[in-house]
Automatic annotation (TrEMBL):
It holds the Pfam family Metallophos. PANTHER family: BLL3016 PROTEIN (PTHR43143:SF6), METALLOPHOSPHOESTERASE, CALCINEURIN SUPERFAMILY (PTHR43143). GO terms for molecular function: hydrolase activity. This is Metallophosphoesterase. Residues 47-238 form the Calcineurin-like phosphoesterase domain. It comes from the Bacteria. InterPro entries: Calcineurin-like_PHP, Metallo-depent_PP-like, STPP_CPPED1, TAT_signal.
Amino acid sequence: MNPNMSRRQLVRHTAWFGAAVGFSVVGGEVISHVAAAAERSHARPTLRFAQISDSHIGFTGAPNPDVTGTFGHAIEQVNNLGYTPDFVVHTGDLTHLSTPGQFDQVKQMMGALKTPQVFTVPGEHDSVDDTGQKYRNAFGVGSVGDGWYSFDIAGVHVIALVNTLNLRKLGHLGADQLDFVRKDVARLPSDTPIIVFSHIPLFAMYPNWGWGTDDAAQALSYLRRFSSVTCLNGHVHQLFSKTEGKVTFYSGTTTAYPLPRPGDGPAPKPVTLPAGKLRDALGIREVSYTPGETALALKERALQ
Ligand SMILES: [Fe+2]
Ligand SMILES: [Fe+2]
């Protein structure tokens, strides 16, 4: 190995020769290996967006005594990426307890995002007492059914799904939504890159804790013919990635508080980290699409 190779070059080198998708920490910045591979092409991305998740506005407790402050920092960080993201997506658990005040606050805070468009999907914390009615009143403009929707941007097709509506439907899409996905993609050529947003993972990350979607396989079956499918979710409050065929799943982190690793303990309870360590567990994600690249490029950034 070249002793002069910088750590960053080493990551790219490893990425180029390694087939696995994974994450490497370089100077506080987590770079997915697929991102490094995409950077090699020298082509320019035509779509760049940011993902934030699980702000849990209204949460109080030792794991994060100031979720409003950390969410505000995440928004500032998105506003200082050095470019204007084409959009920002919040992948759910915007609020902690779905109160009107919490929805007002999170909506007002996201109004400060410097981006042309903000997209959201609901988390189970956004539909604790009304199967998502207050969520849809605040964020459901342009959605269909119980809050799902899709759109096209820069040659990419984006599908936003709802798998959190109530306890009975937690980790569940349902027949209406599956039908929506089937019809939605029917017209698309198979080389259209697909991005799917959901709150709960569409892969079985840890079903014992509700970290999976029981009928996701049906939705994914409609996407199987596409050459590039990227699923971005929240809910698990930690980075994780998995590839199944042409579909890659990326769990995002949170701006509020960490949860345990899958199966680490009896239940996914908020974790209190040692003093000064919280921000390292929180963060934002940058995503870009470059024509000609099968994989999207992701950069995970810890909260500054
Ligand atoms: Fe959450
Ligand atoms: Fe959640």
